[in-house]
Records
---
Amino acid sequence: MAEVAVQQEKEAIFSKKRVKLLTDPLNDNNPVTVQVLGICSALAITVQVKPALFMFAGVFFVVVLGNIVVSMLRNVIPNRVRIIAQLVIVAGLVSIVDMILKAYAYDVSKQLSVFVGLIITNCIVMGRLEAFAMANKPWPSALDGIGNSLGYGLLLIIVAIVRELFGSGKLLGFTIIPPSFYEHGYVNNGMMMMPPMALVLVGIIIWVQRSRNTKLIEAED
Amino acid sequence: MALNKESNGYVIMFSVILVLVTAVALVTVFSFTRDTVSNNQKLEKMQNILQAGRINVERNQAEAEYKKSIIDAFALTEKGEVKMKGEIDNVFNIDLASELKKKEGEEKLFPVFVCNKNDSTFYILGMRGKGLWDAIWGYVALQKDMNTIYNAVFDHKGETPGLGAEIKEGWYTAQFTGKKIADEKGEFVSVSVIKKGTAPASDYNVDGVSGGTLTSNGLHDMLKLFFSAFYEYAKTQKNAAPEVKAETVPATNDSIPADSLALDTQATDSLNNNTTTTNH
């Protein structure tokens, strides 16, 4: 354990490097638009904003706690079974989320249905555990988890806002588009309610982001 | 410490401890949430039963409304014999999943709830069957004549979204209203779930879900099983009190405002579900 102690250089709790862990996934290294992970759930549960919010909360809980737990155990997890160990931890956390949702947000849990369980297979979760938490201390891992789930949640909510607003004229269940619009021939876009439209929206977001963010533009050969 | 992290003994030790800790954490959370979850499920069931009688309430009012509207309940055997007469709570707690698992010859009990809404009586049949992937279930309300369907509510555990899962949507269940389980001569026919267009529309069939054939077949079998039990029961009731048939005329008249209401909900449902239908 002596070696670990030597490595512990004092670093400010919010040093530049660590703030980057939080902000990077929001834009430059967004898990959905840049790494293209977690697309599956982004398509499935973004028809309305409310389930998207709960999904974000669930993923937030799982990624942050999973990162912290795995990071604390990183020196005792045998390398041969590390993926299984991570899976057990993630599955445990997801089951907890599922039970809590069923108890305190029953309707949302019915709406999310299988997708709560599918957080386990959300690539962002395993990706962060394997790529970051296994090699970093708990605090940076926690920041990394917060950053990545915020990046995921941000995208989820943007897509959900567009889909709910144009698909059913509502936001969080409240009617936004006034009835007079409908009287003048405005029609809700049924396409918005279908999963492929979420993919198109994610594509548009990636396009906008890439054209604005110079870091993401690949050098031409 | 000369602990070899890659030795088999260490790996096994680590796995056992990790799994134990996870299990303890899960059990703790489960024991905290168990009561709330089962209460939620109970209220949802009450809500569904009321919904079959076209009484739509918020979940937190479901229990009060249920106590007010469900005035009687009994269980039927497959042959239509009445059991558990008046034991409303026991009938509510009948677990159809385990009833259906009973072997041939054992007595299966099917719940029937008697609902009173604005002085008209409905018989709400609890049902359960097999879809394509997992269980499907529902509640079907019959009018006082014990023959005409007033409303139906279905749900499922894991049918394919956009296909079999559509059976729970309002636009689908709306077609059940007004269907009959026995023909003019009083013979049992059930309501068949058929492929659209394979038979002329009648009072005894409804369309299946396109792309959800196996779910539709499951629904068909479920309806047949539970309707036949209720038909046998209805037959004994009608024999005992022949004037019931005469009463059916005012009963259907009573239901006219309710039916026009049904059309309204149907209209809004189809608005809301525009998108689900386009899924096909």
---
Amino acid sequence: MTGGLQARRAPSLLSVYAFLVYAFLYFPIVVLLVYSFNGSGVGGFPPAHWTLDWYRQLFGDGALWEAVWNSVFVAVVAVTIALGLGLPAALALDRTNFPGKALFRRLVLLPLILPGIITGLSLLMLFVAVGMKLSLVTITLGHGTALISVATTEIFAGLQKLERAQEEASLDLGANHWKTFWRVTFPNLRVSLIAAALLIFTLSLDEIAVSFFLIGRANTLPLEIWSRLRRGITPEINAISTLILVFSIAMILLWYRLRTRLQHVEEARAPLVPASIEGETA
Amino acid sequence: MTKAAPLAAVSGTAATVAAPILSIRQVSKRFGQRPVLHGISLDVASGEFLTILGESGSGKTTLLRLIAGFEDLDSGEIWMGAERLDRIPAHRRQVNTVFQSYALFPHLSVFDNVAYGLRAKNTAQAEIPERVTQALAMVQMGEFAQAAPAKLSGGQQQRVALARALVNRPRVLLLDEPLSALDANLRRQMQVELKSLQREVGITFIFVTHDQEEAMALSDRVALLRAGLLEQVAPPREIYGEPETAYAAQFIGQTNLLRAEVKEGIATAGPIVWRTFGASGKATYSLRPECIRLVTESAGLPFANADVSGGRFRGRVRSQAFGGAMDLLEIDCGGANTIRARIANPGILTGEREFEFAATDAIRVREGEPE
Amino acid sequence: MYSRAYKAGVTIPPLLWVTVFLLVPYAILFCYSFWSVSPAQVILHNWNLQNYFQLLRNPIYVQVLLRSIRIAASVTVFALLLGYPLAYYLSFHAAKRKDLLYQLVIIPLWASYLVRGYAWKTILGSDGVLNGFLQYLHITHKPVEFFLYSPFAVIITLTHIYTPFMLLPIYASLEHIPRNLVEASHDLGSSSWSTFRRVILPLSLPGVLAGATFAFVLTLGDFLAPLLVGGPSGIMISNVVVSLFGAAYNWPLGAAISFGMMLLVVTLLLITERLEKRLVIS
């Protein structure tokens, strides 16, 4: 649909504008990065002398590392929950038909569009009602719940790219649904699952809106940073923020590359599939 | 004009058969609001090569998928022997499919692909290598056992798909347009191989295609499907020589449809007149191009078979195209449409001159929606 | 061809989780909204509609709500002004660098909210980068106060956050426009601008609608940006809720406001969904 037409040279006004928008999007990131090396601290202009002091400070900061560890723990469990429930949900949406399917879809995807405060608060009320103390566990449950929608969306996209005929072939040859899933669907879905895991991991590490309400004694990294912010801005925060950003960017790029690799695999297979197979029901 | 003598029935010219291996009874299927199959009934004889022929949208692939178990029927029954097939889930049916896209597992070698079904049914480990090798040899892919499917050509993948299905010794093999992705020469070659393979293993083949030439070449019987209903079920010669409907006559091979008025044994379609035994009234006749002879040569002399009986008509030749054994002529005889004829070595006939032609065999057909 | 067992197996686990961790909490939230709090800080289960009336009658709340709507609308408009041209550039003029440029948009989309909000905080403050820069160039002689801790700061920060959210659906719908339509339009004598106005813009409306809904809804429910950069004059409705769950201890009222927000979001979603369907068909 998008191929075949040579992109015409853009009117220069548009190109400049596009550049400016990119500049706006990256300006704060660049500032953050630059000032994390700035000797004279967070504000002011121009940045004075170059230093690695702030990063050095980070390494000695015990509380921060504890928060990092907590965040990783939460993220790993959240990924497990999100994928573990997102996979059946995606299968249900992609494969089966049942009454109430539209409602099911809306329900599962709701946390994507609902502001985090609502998800966070209502979960808080649940935990209070059941008498569960707020802790990393509650944060994990919150992340898992909120991220099921991301998992479902990603895995659904991955399922759509699978050649349905392969699964039918597996059934046809005598393997039941369970065997078919493990021997045919799952191996072909692996890359999608890894990509989804990367994305969810990153989102969980950065999550703050829902976590805000579910925090107990232990802090996740964003919450630790938040509490420090209340005491005032320090360049150390710049440093850790930069590190977070660099890590997130790496993960996001990795996720994206994996996903587009799938697209190329699908396109490479295309010549072997006659055009009439798509959509023909006779 | 006479009708061709009825052929000896191969396995029944109707849709029913004695002791069928597969019996499709009143099967209907709809997708959402759209009906695709309307109460189809068809028996399949054991060991036959049956082709389900139809345009896209006719329901042929849907019918196949119902037999395989990838769709559930809305109404009707499918029986295999004494068992109700449609009640059995896909993976337990003794039916295997060769998919249009081959659907080989890319993460498994050719050997593992073929062995897949055997392993899924927990066949004895010792038996597997022998059976796989045998199946691959049957399709001449023995050397490729360790290859990755992605590295094979379309034709090679298709053979592996065939081996993968046959190794399981199904009672019925379903083939969903397996040759449509191949180029013309490879296709003809594969048609020959498929036919002899089927004879060799003796398994019932149900073959789906939209290519009528393919259907004619391969099948013991052809089931012509149109808009979810069976138009005609018959062996190739019969469906070609004695089409029951105008659609069948036009879909398979080429024909001229003559809309005639029959009165007391004489049929008149424009300038063409002939004797017939049909009932009086309006009727449609199918006249195949090769059933037209040239009566006069260009020099005005009578042609060799001048005593050929049949409906005579005169006309000018509008166009003439070389077609190998016969030329394809378009004759303008004053009627509504031109008559297409296939005549061997007629000489150049185009121009203003009128020639005389004879139509030797017209079959009366039904028109309209399938019943 | 999927048995009842299969269908049950894929729908029940996610449904169960979503029921326990989304539906039940929403139900609890709903119940709380009808209760009230006694002066002794005890939650009374005296079912009434007082909280909802309070929300609409109390001038402070109404004021904050109106401000929130204004901010959300502004952010949506700005994000559209920034996002649409960039999406257009990406879709029609990017050609070889499309993939790279697309990745450059994905990064700010998924990268940490907190980090980016913090970055704006350091930029806009009175000792921040922006003020420093302006003073360095002698454009101003003392710090401009309203950059930070104002609705202005909130709008800039949230525009920055939600422009990628706006961009992606617009980009998706632009990509869906068959290029031969554009060519046909040019062929028939229509200028670039005219083609844009009469062919491209209408066909991209579903994406615009989706992006605008996303941006508006998420901004309306945002509470982090106001806390970071909003100050007292930048408070939004979600901050009111946060304080009601914190120091101001009135959970029922907070629940009522949250539930009201939820109703608003769901209603908006349903409306835009219906609009989108009509747009796509026409």
